[in-house]
Write a structure and sequence with these properties.
four-stranded antiparallel sheet; alpha+beta; about 230 residues; 5 helices
């Protein structure tokens, strides 16, 4: 079986006023001879953003005040993670296969830094997934993949306005009778453009220019506010 994947946008530009983007992931499922091959085949699409280190802190209420309590750091948590499938994952593969290919938030492999009790690790991992899900950065979309004519498939995944820049990997799996029979990868780049790119690039590569710009911007905004106040 051969998968031929494609994506509606290979580049997404983040500019001022960016409100997010909808990606259409689509393609064809063919036999090696080029004939239709999607009959009795499920499709799962996993879109994953760049990995990063994340510190997760637990809040506790002490004497009526919320304070930081326990914390842990994850070495490689994806900035974005979304799964779309033709059916619920539990109806497509067993737990072992789902864990191997990370087909769902339950199977997302988050690596904590240092030694941590397994129960604590599970609790913090669940907390991180819940936090990212509420921000729209982690998603599960069962039934979102549609097939047509036993050869074509398509799925839509939404990126929120808070999405991080970097290279995103979309991996498509063709699954039959509980086994992955084919997979293919395509990519999309999310990058800042315009003024946002100028600020981001100088913040990373030229601290002096970025610092001077920040000071000048603050002084300018203060002067403008003072002038407006004087006119009132």
């Amino acid at each position: 079986m051969v998968l031929v994947p494609e994506i509606s946008q290979h580049e997404i530009e983040v500019r001022q006023g960016f409100t997010g983007a909808d990606l259409l992931l689509y393609g064809a499922i063919l036999s090696p001879e080029g004939a239709r091959a999607a009959k009795d085949t499920d499709i799962v699409v996993v879109l994953e953003g760049p990995v990063r280190s994340i510190v997760l802190r637990e809040k506790q209420k002490v004497a009526g005040v919320w304070v930081n309590a326990d914390s842990t750091q994850f070495r490689s948590a994806p900035a974005f993670f979304a799964v779309a499938s033709t059916r619920p994952i539990a109806d497509i593969v067993d737990d072992k296969t789902a864990a191997i290919y990370e087909l769902g938030l339950k199977w997302l492999q988050l690596s904590p830094i240092g030694v941590i009790d397994p129960a604590e690790q599970a609790r913090f991992s669940a907390g991180l997934v819940d936090l990212m899900r509420r921000q729209g950065l982690y998603q599960e979309n069962e039934g979102a993949v549609k097939t047509s004519g036993d050869v074509l498939y398509q799925a839509r995944i939404s990126l929120p306005s808070s999405v991080q820049t970097g290279t995103y990997t979309a991996e498509t799996f063709a699954i039959r009778k509980g086994k992955v029979v084919a997979s293919a990868i395509t990519q999309v780049d999310v990058r800042k453009e315009g003024f946002e790119r100028f600020v981001a690039v100088n913040a990373e590569t030229n601290g002096l220019i970025y610092g001077l710009f920040a000071v000048l911007l603050s002084v300018g905004m203060g002067w403008l506010a003072g002038r407006l106040f004087a006119l009132v």
